[in-house]
């Protein structure tokens, strides 16, 4: 439904009865500049005085992606915060693609962190959760205490050997072009193509839920166009600044990539080589999972995360 001109909000009925997703919704307003206030949805589970774990999703997903992990991590004594980015999930969705940019996604998440005054966080990031979350860490490093990166990246157009050979790949460029020229895409099918085993229809319906019509998909389409693939890209300088901070980051940094995601596989080694905090960590590969490891092997990833959290808990 259009709550005011140019701002869509997915009806609550779309989120009723989703499998494994019975969490209480929470909301906070962030500034959309000339768009006015935008409502951002998040989950907040576990003890309020527990160490904070911030789980960031990517594209085209939302907090539903983390439903297998939230309960076990909260039961282990951690406060689990899982926001939906603006344009995704139960958060507001500006209809104009010009409302979205890489820098705006980072700014909206920074506003969210400040609004909740989150500190001592462990960042869990996948897909776009990495570029956004690691940028966030570089801009407010004192609020973060550790990172678990899974199936993500932080591109800055470096040539080999410091960067990823063949970046950007033809597949990445084709995906950007598809999103640039499309008015709407089948979210569930995009999701299913990046898994090892196709999820059940009721699960795929959960990924379709935020987008009842193409008008709701502007953020989903435009975020892909923000991938830094050339020297003129928005956010490239900020990504390079983030790498400078990460190359001096001595706090714990764990990689837990899946075994079947060729689009990000090379980045696990880059993080392990370039981030000092990755030295001596129990890095792992999660078997039998594609890009969306939280969906296919959420329990295994939660186990790795809890072990990491417990090993670094004061």
Q: Please, could you describe this protein's structure?
A:
This protein is α/β, with parallel strands linked by helices. The protein has helices at 67-75, 102-116, 129-139, 170-181, 187-193, 201-208, 218-224, 236-246, 265-274, 293-311; strands spanning 2-4, 7-8, 26-31, 37-45, 52-56, 79-83, 93-94, 121-127, 144-152, 253-258, 284-286. It has an eight-stranded mixed β-sheet with strand order 3-4-6-5-8-9-10-11, sandwiched between helices. A three-stranded antiparallel β-sheet has the order 1-2-7, with no helix packed on it. The mean pLDDT is 96.
How is the topology of this model organized?
Blueprint: E1 2-4, E2 7-8, E3 26-31, E4 37-45, E5 52-56, H1 67-75, E6 79-83, E7 93-94, H2 102-116, E8 121-127, H3 129-139, E9 144-152, H4 170-181, H5 187-193, H6 201-208, H7 218-224, H8 236-246, E10 253-258, H9 265-274, E11 284-286, H10 293-311
Parallel strand pairs: 5-6, 5-8, 8-9, 9-10, 10-11
Antiparallel strand pairs: 1-2, 2-7, 3-4, 4-6
Helix pairs in contact: 1-10, 2-3, 3-8, 4-7, 5-6
List keywords for this structure.
single chain, 314 residues, alpha/beta, Rossmann fold, eight-stranded mixed sheet, three-stranded antiparallel sheet, 10 helices, globular
């Amino acid at each position: 439904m259009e709550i005011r001109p140019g701002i869509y909000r997915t009806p609550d009925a779309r989120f009723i009865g989703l499998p494994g997703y019975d969490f209480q919704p929470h909301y906070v307003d962030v500034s959309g500049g000339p768009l006015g206030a935008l409502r951002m949805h998040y989950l907040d589970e576990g003890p309020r005085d527990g160490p904070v774990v911030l789980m960031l999703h990517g594209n085209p997903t939302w907090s539903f992606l983390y439903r297998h992990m939230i309960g076990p991590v909260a039961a282990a004594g951690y406060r689990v915060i899982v926001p939906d980015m603006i344009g995704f999930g139960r958060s507001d969705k500006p209809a104009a693609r010009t409302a979205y940019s890489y820098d705006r996604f980072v700014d909206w998440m920074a506003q969210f962190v400040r609004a909740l005054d989150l500190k001592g966080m462990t960042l869990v990031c996948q897909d776009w959760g990495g570029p956004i979350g690691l940028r966030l860490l570089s801009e407010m490093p004192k609020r973060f205490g550790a990172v678990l990166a899974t199936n993500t990246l932080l591109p800055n157009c470096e040539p080999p050997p410091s960067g990823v050979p063949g970046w950007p790949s033809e597949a990445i460029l084709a995906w950007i072009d598809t999103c640039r020229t499309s008015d709407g895409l089948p979210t569930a099918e995009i999701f299913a193509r990046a898994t090892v085993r196709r999820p059940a229809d009721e699960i795929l319906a959960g990924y379709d839920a935020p987008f009842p019509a193409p008008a709701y998909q502007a953020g989903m389409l435009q975020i892909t166009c923000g991938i830094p693939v050339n020297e003129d890209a928005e956010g490239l300088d900020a990504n390079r600044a983030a790498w400078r901070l990460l190359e001096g980051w001595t706090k714990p940094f764990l990689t837990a990539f899946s075994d079947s995601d060729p689009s990000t596989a090379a980045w696990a080694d880059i993080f392990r080589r370039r981030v000092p905090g990755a030295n001596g960590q129990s890095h792992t590969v999660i078997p039998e999972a594609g890009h969306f490891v939280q969906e296919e092997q959420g329990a295994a990833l939660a186990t790795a995360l809890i072990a990491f959290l417990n090993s670094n808990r004061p």
